[in-house]
Amino acid sequence: MNFLLDLLQGAGVGGASGIRPFLPTLVTGGLATADVAVDFEGTAFSFLESPVFLIVIVFAAAVTVALEQRGKIAEPLGQGLLVIGVVLGALLAAGSLDDRADIWWPGLLVGGAAAVLLGVASRQLLGRVAQRLGEEERSFLLLYAAGTALLVTAASLLFPPLALVALVVAAWLLVASRKRAGEKYAGLRILNRP
């Protein structure tokens, strides 16, 4: 049972890293330094709570925010952040398992998969919402994404079963998005018939 809870905690934190990679890493590493909900000390992932690593994460987050404010490289930056989120999510989930379990490698798989799921779902949702908003309102989408990542991180660390809620919602968003796209193209095929 404890292994399952640790795996859920890792999935939640890993998934949050898919939404915004640096904030969940910073929060989890910061809490781990205080031994709150997770502790990477004495594990193969102790670097996740080291001050040097956390400073690098703060710097990377600041550079990311500056680039996003310019908005000129949105698509490549988004893809790069998803890749970084998958890597950090896998590491955080493996560290969460290594904290209390004998094996940690399933965390790499679960954390990476959860980061992909939540990352893709959130990007599709934010992309659809951004099309309907004006320029000024679009700038708030990044704050909503950061808030969501923070909420998923905190919920997963403090009460790991809540990670299941985030995973189910992300899966539902992806299925609904694919269904909506299929209906849209079916309508277009009907309109194009001679």
TrEMBL record:
Residues that span the membrane, as ranges: 42-67, 79-97, 103-121, 142-175
Source organism (scientific name): Svornostia abyssi
Stated name of the protein: DUF4126 family protein
Keyword Transmembrane applies: yes
Residues annotated as domain DUF4126: 7-178
Keyword Cell membrane in record: no
Domain of life the protein comes from: Bacteria
Entries under Pfam families matching the protein: DUF4126
UniProt keyword list: Membrane, Transmembrane, Transmembrane helix
